[in-house]
UniProtKB/TrEMBL annotation:
Residue ranges with Acidic residues bias: 14-29
Species classification: unclassified sequences, metagenomes, ecological metagenomes
Ranges for region Disordered: 1-29
Comp. bias (Basic and acidic residues): 1-11
Name of the protein in its database record: Uncharacterized protein
Amino acid sequence: AKKKEEEEKAVEVVQEEAEGVSEIEDDDR
């Protein structure tokens, strides 16, 4: 169960990073 929670946190971080990258790309346009 503890490992699953860590995986879920990692997924959230990846999603946040992906959103941040998208925002940066939009600014470059």
